[in-house]
């Protein structure tokens, strides 16, 4: 069982090596990288590439580790007891299985994505240490122990919003997805838009990479945003020559809302365009 990428996902050699190392070691793969570099999609593609079911646990600021195991709905049980519902005699009727429980008891070895773990409270990763190590947990309300039939492939993503505890990091295999170079970006575009005009892609990539190098950007445009932008360029039949123009009026590319996602960055490019026009007039 080895991952080598898929037809719709360009995986670099170091990324495929990290995935396969985590599988062999039977440790969670902790993936970091800029937003939009394909961390979440990676888990989907691993599941596709290994022909395995995918379970997704999306983490929020209010998420607790216990929710990944199970939740006991005592309120519903109390209400049903007041209504005389016969189900109250079986406490298991009020146990809601979490994603780890589903992964542990899946009939096939699944891929479990714990997405954006750094959004949760700082104690969240530590609260999962025992369960991820032992691949089992105890259900106190019913007295049963849930043990993994087979160890799931665990992918954990982080946007580095919070530092993760050292004890948690020791139990993971780590990989940082670097921002793709021009050649890799070209391959990614080819996968998503195989029939796109080469000259348009060439000019779009040049403009896109130049934008990322502008000092002072609050948020650099990402790979996913490049793909959205290219889709719009094709839809609106934007000519490659339009992207090549370098006068001050054209410094901000057409349909830039797909690339620049806050007013500070738009303002920055507007100021640069103004300075360029002033220099041109002075010349």
TrEMBL record:
It comes from Methylobacterium longum. Residues 25-183 form the AAA+ ATPase domain. SUPFAM superfamilies: P-loop containing nucleoside triphosphate hydrolases. Coiled coil: none annotated. This is MoxR family ATPase. The lineage of its organism: Bacteria, Pseudomonadati, Pseudomonadota, Alphaproteobacteria, Hyphomicrobiales.
